[in-house]
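re: that chain from earlier
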Amino acid sequence: MTRVVIADDQDLVRAGFRLILELAGIEVVAEASDGREALEAARSLQPDVVLMDVRMPVMDGIEATRRIAQAGLPSRVLMLTTFDLDEYVVEALRAGAGGFVLKDIDRERLVEAVRTVAAGDALFAPSVLRRLVESYVQRPQASADPRLDALSEREREVLVAIGEGRSNAEIAEQFVIAPATVKSHVRAILAKLRLRDRVQAVVFAYETGLVIAGRAGQPTLGQCGHDDER
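^ sequence. v structure.
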């Protein structure tokens, strides 16, 4: 059973999410009203997912997410917010968030989002990912990161596909290789680039200019990685 900590400074929001998740068979092991409580719960209970609000007192959700990642905890963080602003998206992803959805998400998609992130996949609300891509359209592309030199030609191609929002199944079809081979490439890419997960690989692909937002042929992005990335 998927185990979740809900972190939000509003009692009614936490109660609503708890009801939705528990009715779907997901265990809510704790609630937190600020980022520090969320961090403590992640350390002591090590849930599969921390459903984390961005704006909270004492410690905000982005800082709590950063500390969870730095501590090497197994918990994945699914960020929740009423704001789909660029700075929140980019900061949350760099901090180590495994997904980013808006608070007005419907109950079925919330349950799906929690299960998707718990399985190790990356998930974004379409409007959030669109803003992320648009933010890179407006920025000058950074110079290539020297870590890219460690990648094989095929690994670089797979990284581009990840940055374009393609799932493992789509990547396997694109390069006519087995899904298991794709998973091996993804693991190698994350290890060589010293990235925590697929989400950071997407950000890395844009930051280095390996993927150019809005280029011809790029698929419409909504959910990044609907199958098991590893």
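The radius of gyration is 17 Å.
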